């Protein structure tokens, strides 16, 4: 009986050592085993985009676009005017379109983000639409991006600034101010947002080339050219430069 008592501590110590060794080995093995790849949200969005486009609502019609309606390549860009990355990406997209003429069509879509820092983005989209009613959408788009830091801070009331831009491009400012808060401009912005949500747009810029979501890395002059050339090659259309420029009809109130 005394021998059993004397041996008990040794048994307990031995058991602890064995458990510690096994536990250490398990931790080492799990720490060095190959990790299961984590799905990239952008990759998931890319894989789901094609299906979503089949059922997505059309967005504002007619859309603001440049290029022929039957272009081989269509680039659809969802934009927040207060987004610095959009201000960088949009000129790259437009320059690429100009280089290919009517074989590439660019469609502009509004997608002002619902975040406090972009509080003025919704009004900026409506300002662009209000300018569009008077035939100056692209001119207002350019001013909004060019002067983004002047009107986008959430602490500002941007409407007097937008009125100044309207004067600069020769608009009837009374009509512009009325249209800025009117049903037509609001409806067009909202329809674009509904379309964006339907194809899983959650950030800006979201740029789709023939319904395939591009990464930010894709939106450089060289990379975008390669992607366009690849799409043109699929249709056996030779890539060449052209300077033609086609705009959709101006929406009327």
Summarize the structure.
With 253 residues, the chain is α+β, with helices and mostly antiparallel strands.
Describe this structure in words.
- It is a single chain.
- The protein is an alpha+beta fold.
- Helices cover 55% and strands 9% of the residues.
- The chain contains ten helices and five strands, in the order H-H-E-E-H-E-H-H-H-H-H-H-E-E-H.
- The chain has helices at 2-32, 41-55, 84-100, 121-133, 137-146, 148-151, 159-168, 173-180, 183-198, 221-234; strands at residues 64-66, 73-79, 104-110, 206-209, 212-213.
- A five-stranded mixed β-sheet has the order 1-3-2-4-5, sandwiched between helices.
- Residues 1-5, 24-47 and 237-246 have low confidence and may be disordered.
Question: Which short descriptors sum up this protein?
Answer:
single chain, alpha+beta, five-stranded mixed sheet, disordered N terminus
